[in-house]
Amino acid sequence: MKKRWIVTTIALLLVTNLFTLYFSNKGTIFSNGLTTKETIKMEYLKDFVKKNYLREVDEDKFYVGQLKGIVASLGDPYSEYYTKEELQELMDFTTASFCGVGMVLSPGDDNLITVISAIKGSPAQEAGITAGDKIIKVNGKDYMASQLTEAVEVIKGEEGSQVKIQILKAESQKLQDLELTRKKISIDTVISKKLDQDIGYIGITQFSDHTSQEFDKHLDGLKKQGLKGLIIDLRGNPGGVMEGATGIADTLLPKGTIVTAKNRQGKVVENIQSDDRSLNVPMVVLMNKGSASASEILAGALKDHEKATIVGETSYGKGVIQILKKFPKGDGVKLTVAEYFTPKGVSIDKKGIKPDTEIKNPENIKGIGLDYIQTDAQLKKAKEILKNKI
Looking at the whole model, is its pTM more than 0.90? Predict the structure, then answer.
């Protein structure tokens, strides 16, 4: 199979191919379905607000607010209307290069901006920001989940400039004030190294539009060094380009189902299959609560096919798919349209994937991965498991 598809970001997407960020200028989400009474009420409300609000109404922002309100009324944290500028920023994520502090954020059910993960090597991770932390203030101003886009705009900025962020720590429930220096984050989404006893390590920081190709190159390099066991590290990986995950699954799995998706009528709208080529060595997948979306697709497929042992903590639990509809003027809407299922038909939405071997790292650990191999308890456990299998 080995298809190379294209996509994007925090919440991830389906149309022609599963989880593909799909652009279309055909059709429209708007209709003339309002009744006369509804139309009159809408116009009355707009007129009342514009005439009586304490301050002058910005007509452009007023119109954008109406569009955002339509989607926000769904109460779905993954669906959102984007202005042209916001949509471009969304798409910039697929290049795996941007300037900021390296946090992947999502609206939380508590109406607080929630950290899904801090990208490895970013200022956010170096400052100790972890999955589940809440963003309370940015540069002294309070932000709620409904203001996520605005908060992201303030957090981003020129390389070398600083931003003040107040967070509520997930573990301690204590407030912490940080001052972070923005930097250019050009992400190599895949890293690898041969460990002892012919064990290979591949870490995937996120899934961009070139991650699957990167993975294949790293895997080929490890094979040439003599590969008898493989650790795939998805900790802190928020997802991204879903086709990157299914492409990697195709490389690793024998012929069979990678993932399926169903719409609200329960109809299967996509069924992604792998070919008969696979990697026949013992594998361990490392996950934590910052492993989300595309990461869960890959881990779920490997687990259900019994090709890998899952080690670490229960993953984030994002099991729904969005399409991205781009409008002629460059703005657009991201809308949840389907739920995905692992090869055994399991939905992980809001539940996550439970590890086969549950193990947590110490709270005071300085970091995870190759640079912290002596203190990373989860990585050490993965090595131990593989040593007993090869």
Answer: no
